[in-house]
């Protein structure tokens, strides 16, 4: 049965989108607070290792998404779309709330990072079942020639989820003092999610099953073994692999570069104040979000392939120039310092367990309004610096507050990256839905999507940050570009496969 009317579809989109938005908010809040979380749940004696461990834990939630896609996809193809993503919503919300309740590493030691890891894995499993259900549900309520447009509204929710997570963090920081936020206020965004989940659950409970799936089930055309039919059938497996390597893999790395790596780069490589990063990223996301719907609508007219491939190609060609421009914007080596306004203070204070630390605080101001500050803590034993691997053991925290002109320039550079995201992501839900028949659609489309996004995309922040750290330690003057090799190479491979093997026009209707 093909749907021909859009009557009532806004109710479907609202119910599906609200739940999807909340699940992405829950998932993103961890990444948005990665810098803070690294100091709470991991040993504090090595900030770089703690931050990388936090990114790895964040990535773990992405790695298990394919398993969630298989488990919940199977349920969705057997018992229905509606009930399956009701379960994923509750699982995601519960795990997020509990992350905000875990005691710190100082309180319970090793159990803190272990508990966080377990809850992140539960989040990943839940998200693995959510997207396929929501996208399939909306697509099966949409006319075939408008699927790109209607499903693109679901696509906006991931970005809105990140946007709302950033806004909640900004408001919480504004209301609390820096000390209060660092001590306990960072938990508030996790706790807030439970209220949002309850509201979404009440709305979703009133939804009806997809008419396409309901008809198939009434006629006995559903399957009892969607995993076997999805991946045991050579023809269908071919489409699963094509969807993964020709589209979802490249879409995944473009998405996470434009939204997550950009945020990580601004905070940990360029050292811009966290609140300023959240604000400028939020503005860029808000400006670019309508383009998800635009490119979804356009894909109904010109086909999915041309838009997605163009987005990948632009990302491949422009990432290095964009990130070069971003880094140079705040490179204080190129700015004129106001020497009379610079300060440097050194103090020695008692640290834990009777140890002493030598703390150096420095501030600099520049002619363009940029402000730079740095706190360097040198660990002392018996009045002498601690030497580890031939180097003085020290923690350095650098913060840059950017001027108004630089802020808008960075907003523009991030906005361009998110435009690439809207091109590859806006049409992909309709593209995946159309590749597979109704009885195995939930399972078949969920796996390539979540492998592409969960494995290739989700690992990007950790891998790219590691590449940058290694290049910097090796003395590479362009170390800040090292992290881009991963998304560029993955997107290039996906682009080549997609150009050769994907159809030019939208896929054949399976309903």
UniProtKB/TrEMBL annotation:
Gene Ontology CC entries for this record: plasma membrane
Major facilitator superfamily (MFS) profile domain ranges (all copies): 12-506
Compartments, as annotated in UniProt: Cell membrane
Coarse class of the protein's main subcellular location: membrane
Keywords: Cell membrane, Membrane, Transmembrane, Transmembrane helix, Transport
Spans traversing the lipid bilayer: 12-37, 49-72, 84-105, 111-129, 150-172, 184-203, 239-259, 279-299, 408-435, 447-467, 479-502
Highest taxon of the lineage: Bacteria
Protein name: MFS transporter
Taxonomy of the source species: Bacteria, Pseudomonadati, Bacteroidota, Flavobacteriia, Flavobacteriales
